[in-house]
Every structure is written in C-alpha cells, then in structure tokens.
Amino acid sequence: MAALTIAERILSRRCGREAHAGEFVVAEVDVMMAHDGNRPLVIDTLRELGFAKPRRPAQLFLVLDHAVPPPTAVVANIHDRMRAFAEEHGSNLLEEGEGVCHIALPELGHVRPGDLVVGSDSHTTTLGAVNCLATGMGSSDMALAAAKGEVWFRVPETLRIVLGGAPGPGVDAKDVAQYLIRRLGLHRSNYRSLEFQGPAVAQMSMDGRFTLANAAVELGAKCGIFPGDAVLRSWLEGRIEGRFEFVAPDPGAVYEESFEFDLGGLAPQVARPHSPGDVVDVGEVEGTPVQMVFIGTCSAGRLDDLRAAARVLEGRSLSPGVRMVVAPGSAEVYHSALREGVIETLVTAGACIVPPGCGPCAGIAQGIPADGENVVSSGPRNFRGRMGNPEANIFLASAATAAASAYVGAITDPRRLL
Amino acid sequence: MIIEGRAHRVGDDVNTDYIIPARHKSRTEDIASLVPVLFEDLDPTLASRIRPGDLVAAGHNFGMGSSRETAPRLLRAAGISAVLAASFARIFFRNAVNVGLPVVECDTSQIADGDVVLVDLEAGSARIPARGVEIKAHPLPPLMLEILRSGGIKGYLEAQGRSVRRPRKGEDRV
Ligand code: SF4
Fold first, then answer.
1. How many Cβ atoms sit within 10 Å of the Cβ of residue A245?
2. Is residue B170's pLDDT more than 70?
3. What is the pTM of this model?
4. Does the ipTM surpass 0.90?
5. Closest residue CA from atom 6 of ligand 1
6. Are A34 and A142 in contact (CB under 8 A)?
7. A107 ligand 1 Cβ < 6 A
C-alpha cells in the first residue's frame, strides 16, 4: 500500500483499486451537475450519444443559473427542456433564482466529503472546499457520466499549497486567490490536484475556502481540495444527513511540489484587463476611473463578500456616474443578506440587485458594460468580451475593493475606507 | 492518422471565450452558424482566413477557461483538422478528443503562420516538409487515440458497444 494523496484516495475508492498519479482509471461518480449555459446541453448530448436516460437520475442536478430569468426565447425554451427532462427522468432541478450551481449545490447539501463530483462547468472545482474531488468537463464527458454513472480520469499529481499568516482587515479570500494566481501563473498547475493546507486555511471561513477552490481552475488545476475540519463540520450541520467521513492524505503521501505562502501583510490584489493572470497590488492601478462595478459570481458572490461590500458602503453612496450591479450567489445568500440588512445598505448606496445566479459574469444576461468602460468585478474571469462587450475593460478584485471603487469612482484600496 | 494542413499561429493562453464568446454561444443552438465569430475577440479577421483542412498552432495552455464543448466543436465546424500546442488546458484537451478534433502536444515554436505541417498522430510527430523541420510530439494515451480514430466519442461508443473500455493497469501511464 502506497501512501496516497486526497485525490488518489478518492479516485481509488471509486475505481475499485489503488490508483496512482499518472494512471488512467474509470471511476464511479457521486454527483453530476449540468447547467443552462453550455451548448450542446448535456441532456441533448446524452441522446446524441445514443443513450435514452441517465443511469442514476437522482445523482444528476440540472441548474438554471446562467441566464435567469431568461433574456431570450431561445434560453426560455432551453430552460423548459431542462425542466421537462428532470421531471421525466426523476433528476433534480434547481430553478431560476436558486443560485449559481457551485454555490447552491453544496448549500443545499447535495455534495458530501469524499464525493467524486463532475460538472459541465470549469468552476466545478469550487466544491472541493467540501473536502471532495470536484472537476469540470464538457458536454460529451458529462453525458457519458450521466449515462454510465462513471467516467475515465487520469489520476492527477498533487501540488500542496500551504498558507500561513493572516491578511489584515480589508483583505480577503478573493485577494488570496488572485495572489496565488499571480505567484503560480496560469499553467503550473495544469492537470494537477491542489491540496490546500496550513494555519491560514484552518482560520478560513467556508465562504473563503469556496473562493480559493474556485480559483483552482484559473490556476489550470483539475481540482482544489480542502481538508475536513471543524469549520467544515459545523458548516455541514443541518445541510447533509447521515454519516460522512473526511478524507485526509496518508502520512507520507507523495506531492509533486509544495508551495508555501505567507499571507501576512498581503495587499488587495487586482487582475488587470484582459487576463486573470495579470495580477498586481491595488496600489498599481489605484485612481483608474471606473464606470461599473459588479459583485457576485461563484468566485466572490457569497455572504462574506456581500458583507464586505456593505461594510465599505455603510452610510455612503455610489460616486455619481458609477453603476453597481449585485447578484447574490444563491437564494440562501440573498436571504441572509436581507436579514442582516446588507441588501438594504447596498440598495441605499445605489446598487441594483439582480436575481441570484451568474448575473452579468459571462455577458449573457443583465449588466453588459458599454464601449470603453472600466468595470471592477468580483468574478473569476476578465477575458476581452467576457461580460458581453469586447470594448470594455474588466478589472477583477475583491467585493471590498469593488465597493470602495464604486464609492470613489476610481479603483481604490478598501483599507482607506475602513 | 496522418494530417496535413496550413497553420494559423496563435499565442499562449488562448481561452475558450476567445474561441467562442459566451454572448454568441448562448444566442443559438446551431453551432455551425457561429463559424464566422470563431476567435472574434482574439482577432476578428482570423475566421475569414481559415480554410477547411487548416490547422491551428498555439503556445501554452490552449483552451484554458470555461468547459464549453462549443469551442472544439466550432473549430471542427470551421474545418480545422488539428490543433498543435505547446500545452493544452485539461478540459479542452478531453473535449477535443471527444468531438474528434485531433490535438497534438509538441514544441510549436518553430511553426510560423502559413507553414504547411504534416502530423502523424500515432507516431507522435510533426513535420514542416518545406523547411525540413522535424518536431517530436507527446504521444496521446492509447484510450484517447482510440477515441480519435473513431472520429470522437460518439463513433467510439458505436464501435465499442456503448461503453468505454477499462484501461489496463499500467498501460496508460504517460
Ligand atoms: S458565476 Fe460566472 S464563472 Fe461562475 S459559473 Fe456563473 S458564469 Fe461561470
């Protein structure tokens, strides 16, 4: 018996033999997720590949999140077909307004520690915060997974990301995520599994962990996995039923490489247009005029993020000439933010709240910027054209930096306003 | 599988949003109708220069970003015969094989725009005959090669009786 990493342990358990990095295995999956944003739809590819129905329909989750409520008849019809499919086969449907798949799925208790999760979306890595192996795939792989209940994988090598030190007030997990991208680049982790460890991880809220696991795919990784600990256990309470077991790496597990980062003294991080990899300290871009701010997404659209924005905007209003769009990541996030008065603060400051879902992140729905505008977004990607207009410039930042920039009308270090 | 085609050079980190922007992808379910906007946000003139049989030569991390299978499907619909890249993002790599788009991981630094490149998928090699350049490619794992030979996962499943064969232990170590 060799000593295994978390990814090797989860894949071994699901393929019925000990699986080591570099090998190809066919593994049973526990959870499958497909949303309304990708073409061809997984449910269509299933038929295209000659399968009549999903093998384990109860493990398949269809999520309406990318374009909600539907902005066009094409999308409305797609939503209808997804509803009909879920109804016919007994699969699960997350309706318009329930939230972004990667936020709502774990909140609703559909993902458990040790699970093998595949989703038709690259940011499926987000779910690794729940101590599971979660990875994104295309429609054909997803359709095959749905039809067979299993999928082939190359067992990934693992990189250990050890985080120490504590960032100061006004600096949060989104800054850490962008800092990791800045330090590791967009390719180093290609095909690898990331294991997050260290004292800063133990201190991190679940919202923060989801934000970091979300960034695994920007780093090129197949998955990003967090340890099972007391923070995760208490978050799971009331969400999942029955017994579950955390998966830890075996002592002596073989890592391809370990990277240690000290987060003490970290400045807010901003990714400049048009690459999530072009990350600098906020000081380097402070003063850049801003016309639009967007807070939301599977990267930084959770309660921690909305709270951070409200802390900055409490008793203040948006700079004239700045629009601010907020998409709470899920119905639960929305509810909590309402109860806490966070939404009230944001609306009073002048923000426009759109329904839980992806919002303007992918340029499909509400909130497309105009030509030449600078946008500060808490989303994960800023490729040219990402928000629907190739003539706009998107800066990626934490919700606090986004809110501070909305108040000043220019990119601003939120620490100045706290 | 031997593939010959004229190369279009692109750089590092060409993401799937550049291959097909989400604002277009969500507009229609007819992928072939999107051929004119292929690579629009990278180079709006590129799609009009692509002829059936051409190939794409890229730097590192081709296909990074979103999992949209529209990306390799659209490259195929535009007639692209293969993508050669210094490295591929993992989801794109799988998607390409599944839709029958040959992907070749090799040093592409010597391939210039307009070069005619000859690729041998089984041998794992590429050549630029006009200039006598030989490039060694990273061979594809057997399972992926089998899927590509069947023209993609659909053909593979039809030939294999609706299931993916179990990799033999050790066989697919790459
Ligand atoms: S929020 Fe943005 S990145 Fe996340 S799943 Fe939705 S469109 Fe994709």
1. 10
2. no
3. 0.97
4. yes
5. A358
6. yes
7. no
